[in-house]
Design a protein that fits this description.
Helix content: 25-40%
Shape: elongated
Strand order of the largest sheet: 1-2-7-4
Radius of gyration: 23 Å
Oligomer: single chain
Mean pLDDT: 94
Order of helices and strands: HEHHHEHEHEHEEEHEEHEHHHHHHHH
Largest sheet: 4 strands, antiparallel
Number of helices: 17
Length: 386
């Protein structure tokens, strides 16, 4: 006869969770390191991480009655985009996790279904809490302790059989479950591909990420202007970044998920940059309803697209950039100015000069002035476009 733990694990698999581990609820063993990471400023503008520090010391801060932590992982790997699309500079690259539906709601529904199963199987009134990414839990620590993977040099949880394309989640329960923690298999060994391939050198040493340099942070979490020195390094990445996972040898074993909600929505697989920049707020809301991309909001997403257009550097983008330079949102205008400066040429210069006569926002004025200086510099990019 199966134990309650085994029944929970079996039902979790039926609900689509590929990896499941159960451990006793306990105080975090990495909280001191995490606290120092925040103190060092590596969290950037994510001030909520510092605010939630007291809650992260122990999962029982979230559920006082918690006796066990069920750690789960759901695969979101779908397809590899054709190389021609992935390397086309006039197309934007969106992180795989955001190709489909918002995972928060999808996973939360499965967790709640698992909770109902546990309550019925335990034949008792239990206290529970489900956690999906946004909860103040150091989830990779608990996942590693539960034996469903190890934390790699790129800070992602890696499973020896299937890699790192996983969403993590947890269920806290007020019953002491059997915990069978398997011996962890696999490691990063001497491999440093993720560190070497990061365009912005965000992985400053193995297992230590400076979020302020990470393209995922810059395109999703950062709400204001992207630092100018980092913009050229972002290429055509317009929402998130998968480079440190794409180069990881363990991900060569990844198997596509059976979950249809994670497969790419129409238009999310390498969309053309010029097709995105003219979106109104209504169009943005409609297109990305129920998508993780809505987190960046229109202003942040179009900011990212403008950086990618500047890195593309093709003069076909100039008319679109002229329109963006008159957008109601100052953040969009400032990055449109930067993109025009990168493209250069007489037409771009005249557009910038004209806008400068009517612009009222100080930060945008500075961006326009810097862009005008940039147009005066000779560029091989411009020669290619002529």
């Amino acid at each position: 006869m199966l134990t309650l733990t085994q029944r929970i694990q079996a039902h979790a698999h039926e609900l689509g969770f590929e990896l499941v581990g159960i451990i006793p609820a306990a105080r975090s063993e990495t909280i001191a390191r995490y606290r120092q990471w925040v103190k060092n400023g590596y969290a950037g503008e994510m001030h909520y991480l510092e605010k939630h520090l007291p809650l992260k010391t122990d999962v029982r801060q979230l559920l006082a009655e918690a006796k066990s932590v069920i750690s789960l992982a759901m695969n979101y790997y779908t397809v590899d985009p054709p190389k021609a699309l992935a390397e086309d500079p006039e197309r934007g690259q969106i992180s795989r996790y955001a190709w489909g539906d918002d995972y928060h709601e999808l996973i939360r529904k499965r967790l709640l279904a698992l909770v109902q199963f546990i309550k019925q199987a335990a034949e008792a009134e239990l206290k529970t809490r489900v956690c999906v990414d946004t909860a103040p839990v150091i989830e990779r620590e608990y996942a590693q302790k539960a034996g469903i993977g190890w934390i790699g040099k790129n800070t992602n949880l890696i499973h020896w059989q299937s890699g790192s394309w996983y969403f993590l989640s947890e269920i806290l329960v007020s019953v002491a479950l059997e915990s069978e923690t398997p011996t962890l298999r696999g490691s990063c060994g001497t491999c440093t591909r993720c560190i070497e391939e990061c365009p912005t050198d965000a992985i400053i040493e193995p297992n230590l990420l400076d979020s302020r340099l990470c393209i995922s942070y810059l395109t999703i979490e950062l709400k204001e202007s992207i630092p100018k020195q980092l913009r050229p390094k972002m290429g055509n990445l317009i929402f998130g970044c998968d480079i440190c996972q794409e180069v990881c040898p363990w991900n060569s074993k990844a198997v596509p998920t059976p979950e249809p909600g994670f497969h790419p929505r129409d238009g999310n697989l390498a969309p053309k940059l010029l097709s995105l920049i003219g979106m109104t707020q209504q169009e943005f809301s409609r297109r990305f309803k129920g998508s993780p991309i809505k987190r960046a909001k229109r202003r942040g997403f179009l900011r990212n697209v403008l950086v990618a257009i500047g890195n593309w550097g093709d003069r076909r983008a100039v008319p679109v950039l002229k329109s963006a330079l008159a957008d109601d949102e100052p953040l969009i205008r400032s990055h449109a100015a930067w993109a025009l400066g990168r493209i250069g040429g007489d037409i771009a210069r005249r557009i910038l000069q004209t806008r400068l006569t009517v612009e009222t926002q100080t930060k945008v004025i500075t961006e326009i002035q810097d862009a005008l200086l940039e147009t005066e510099r000779p560029s091989r990019r411009n020669e290619k476009n002529d």
